[in-house]
Design goal:
Alpha/beta knot, tRNA-uridine aminocarboxypropyltransferase activity, tRNA processing, DTW
C-alpha cells in the first residue's frame, strides 16, 4: 500500500517539508530544467528550489519545444549556470557594473552530470547561452550522494550560492532548511551505523 503523498513537495504526508519551505523573492529569475530521471528521486532539490523562490519555474523533460520562449522572458538576460569552457565566474551586480542593466535569467539544468550534458546536447539553444560558474572551494552538505569531484553541489545549493553572490547582501540561506531536514530524515531512517558504513562521515 503506497503512502499518501503531499501534492506540493511530493514527500510522504508524514514527512511533508512544506512548513520549512520559504517563499523568497529575487531579482534574478531561475529556470530549472529537470531531467525526468530526477523527478522521483527522494532528494529532489530542484523542486525545493522552485517552491522556495517566487521568481522560479521548474520544467521537466529532455527536449523543451518552447525553449526559445522560456529563455527570452521580457526584461531578463539569460545565463546558463554550468561549468565549462568560456564560463565566467558569477559576480555581484556591483562588481560587474551592471546594476541598471537587465537582471539575469539563471538557467539551471538538473540531473547527474551525464544527464545534464545530455540536456545541453538535445537542446542546442542551451549550449549556445553564455555560461556562468561558481567560485571553487564550495563544500556540499549533500552527505548522501558521492560527489563527482571537489566543489560539486546539489542543484539547490548551487542556486542558493549563486543568488547570494548575485544579490548580496540578501540571504537565501532559508532555501536550505527543507534540504537539511530531508537529509537528516534520510540518515535517521537509514540508521547511524549504515550511514557511517556507506558514507564514512559522522
Amino acid at each position: 500500500m503506497s503512502r499518501i503523498q503531499c501534492p506540493r513537495c511530493l514527500r510522504p504526508q508524514t514527512h511533508c517539508l512544506c512548513e520549512l519551505i520559504p517563499c523568497l523573492e529575487s531579482r534574478t529569475r531561475v529556470l530549472l530544467l529537470q531531467h525526468p530521471s530526477e523527478v522521483g528521486h527522494a532528494l529532489n532539490t530542484a523542486r525545493l528550489a522552485a517552491l522556495g523562490l517566487s521568481n522560479a519555474e521548474l520544467r521537466v523533460g529532455e527536449v523543451f519545444e518552447d525553449l526559445a520562449t522560456l529563455l527570452n522572458p521580457p526584461g531578463y538576460r539569460a545565463r546558463l549556470l554550468f561549468p565549462g569552457e568560456g564560463a565566467q565566474l558569477i559576480e555581484t551586480e556591483t562588481e560587474t557594473g551592471s546594476g541598471p542593466d537587465l537582471p539575469l535569467l539563471l538557467v539551471v539544468p538538473d540531473g547527474t552530470w551525464r544527464k545534464a550534458r545530455k540536456l545541453l546536447h538535445l537542446n542546442p539553444l542551451l549550449a549556445q547561452l553564455p555560461r556562468v560558474t561558481l567560485p571553487e572551494g564550495a563544500v556540499s552538505r549533500y552527505r548522501l550522494r558521492k560527489a563527482p569531484g571537489p566543489g560539486a553541489l546539489s542543484t539547490l545549493e548551487a542556486i542558493t550560492q549563486a543568488l547570494e553572490i548575485l544579490e548580496a547582501p540578501n540571504s537565501f540561506a532559508a532555501l536550505l532548511r527543507p534540504f537539511e531536514a530531508l537529509i537528516e530524515g534520510q540518515i535517521e531512517a537509514m540508521g547511524a551505523e549504515t550511514y557511517q558504513r556507506n558514507h564514512g562521515n559522522p
